[in-house]
Amino acid sequence: MSEAKDDLLYISHVVDSIKAVELYTKGADFKEFCANPMMYDAVVRKLQILAESTQRISEKLKKENPHIPWRDMAGFRNILVHDYLEGIDPEAVWDVITLDLPQLKESFQSIKDNWKGI
């Protein structure tokens, strides 16, 4: 696959992961999120997929979209993947869901909608 096709695939993974998180958490508040281990685990898994996908996007596309917090997503991915034994802070995960994902969805959906195979 070409780099451009790979980028489109990873962008699609990001958008799909965000939509899944939105579906899983629809109508839930932080207390419900923490009290439902299946919801929590499903969301963390989708966030792992999202973050891993962003790491595979080409440097060219990243440079063309400096408004996206690539470094923050890489750091969050490392926490999700490597800190699971010590426990991931549910409040940090909830903050990502409620504060960060809406803007990320908008950014990645825009890239996908305007895709020209960069």
Q: Overview of this structure, please?
A:
The chain has 118 residues and is mostly helical. The chain is built from 6 helices and no strands. The chain has helices spanning 3-25, 30-35, 37-55, 59-64, 70-82, 90-113. The protein starts with a helix and ends in a 5-residue tail after the last helix.
Descriptive terms for the model:
single chain, 118 residues, 6 helices, 0% strand
Summarize the topology.
Layout: H1 3-25, H2 30-35, H3 37-55, H4 59-64, H5 70-82, H6 90-113
Helix pairs in contact: 1-3, 1-6, 3-5
Entry summary:
The protein is 77% helix and 0% strand. With 118 residues, it is mainly alpha-helical.
Which H/E pattern describes the elements?
HHHHHH
Helix content: over 70%
CATH architecture descriptor text: Up-down Bundle
Number of helices: 6
Indicate the low-confidence ranges by residue numbers.
none
